[in-house]
Amino acid sequence: MASPTVTLAPEKRVQELLGAERVLSAFRFFESHAAEITEEQIRLCSIPAPPFGEAERASYLRERFREHGLTEAYIDEEGNCVALRAGRSRSPLLVLSAHLDTVFPAETDFTVKRVRHRLLAPGISDDGCGLAALLALLRALEASAIETEGSILFVGTVGEEGEGNLRGARHLLTAGRWAKSVDAFISFDGPGVERITHAALGSRRYRVHLRGPGGHSWGDFGVANPVHAMGRAVARLATYPAPSEPRTTFNVGRIAGGASVNVIPREAMMDVDLRSASATELQRLDAFFRRAVREAADDENAGRRAGDPPLELDLKLIGDRPSGETPTDAPIVRLAEEATRALGYQPRLDRSSTDSNVAISLGIPAVTIGAGGSSGNSHTLDEWYDPRGRDIGLKRALLLLLGMVGIKSD
Ligand SMILES: [Zn+2]
Asked: Structure pTM?
């Protein structure tokens, strides 16, 4: 970090913030505006934001940033919505972010329904509550006239999920206007008040295509069959002895191919997700997987009818998320822990795959935290979010962010 204003020990710093009248006024804002914050979340989440289709939600967020005082809010070259809340100094510069995209395709019904305390909609929690937190924090800072020493960059990122491959965060931190000037990074992702994701879960994702000449199931029997070969590849991968420690996982998440029951397919494809807490284990799994696919194609080719062409294998890397860690003694982690404790909760350090992966891989201290409230059925059409207790998450976030950038003294 450039020149953090962190001079006091984190616990002292949090106590000092809890004694500041403006901070308490912001706390009251979260409580008295709970219903409004939820209404805003409903409006945001009703705007479709499929992968690579976040533009409308991004411009809505930009208008809200502008309405609440950040008049220079803009959409960057990648599609991120970015707004600077300048402090007395440009540094430290803290990014506060949440992701705009959902995992759901464009034709999804994003209408938000309310059933008792719950809000139901795809993406309502992941990351609708994170986006709502950005606006709630901005509004509380404004309403309580809190000026800061360092500066805050509010960002709604694109492409956090799946094939987005963290493209928004990557652009922001490596190519955009703010590349090289960000000193710390916070991402809100999902609900809760205890989780502090300080470690990045690395992953590699592949799209595999196998192509052959195809033919008639009876007349051309013996032609290399891409679906049969893909089946062999899946079966091989499924035998991988993935260790539970360090946790290592694999998933064939999508499989497609073929035309009809009596047609030898010309093509088969699958999408595969490989993850590990350890870079070495991820490497090992990655090598096993690539060999499994190659050998599956070779086996199918070896048994094909004489004179027919072999299957062609096309293995494309569609996702590569770096792993790494923000050290547990870094101020951002210590402050997050102290803020959690100060509100009566037990901090829980965690490893996950989020926008913070990019920051962590660049050596920028980063954490991903929950935005309060609770949720379930994430990444399904039955996703729900319960905003009760959201104010705790917002208070924790406020203590953390002010602990990082400091309140401007009068
Ligand atoms: Zn998310």
From this structure: 0.85
306 CB-near residues (< 8 Å, 6+ apart):
none
Task: Dump pLDDT digits (tens) for 309-333.
Answer: 999 999 999 998 888 899 999 999 9
Instruction: Please check whether residue 315 is in contact with residue 212, taking contact to mean a CB–CB distance below 8 angstroms.
Output: no
What's the gap in Å between 302 CA and the centre of ligand 1?
A: 44
Q: Residue 331 CB: number of other CB atoms within 10 A?
A: 21
φ/ψ of 250, rounded to 5, equals -140, 155
Q: Can you say whether the dihedral through the CA atoms of 279, 285, 287, 293 is positive or negative?
A: negative
- For residue 253, give the amino acid letter: G
226-238 vs 279-302: helix crossing angle, rounded to 10: 140
Residue 243 has pLDDT above 60, yes or no: yes
Distance 52 CA to ligand 1 centre (A): 15
CA of 14 to the centre of ligand 1 (A): 27
- Helices 390-405 and 331-342 pack at an angle, to 10 degrees, of 140
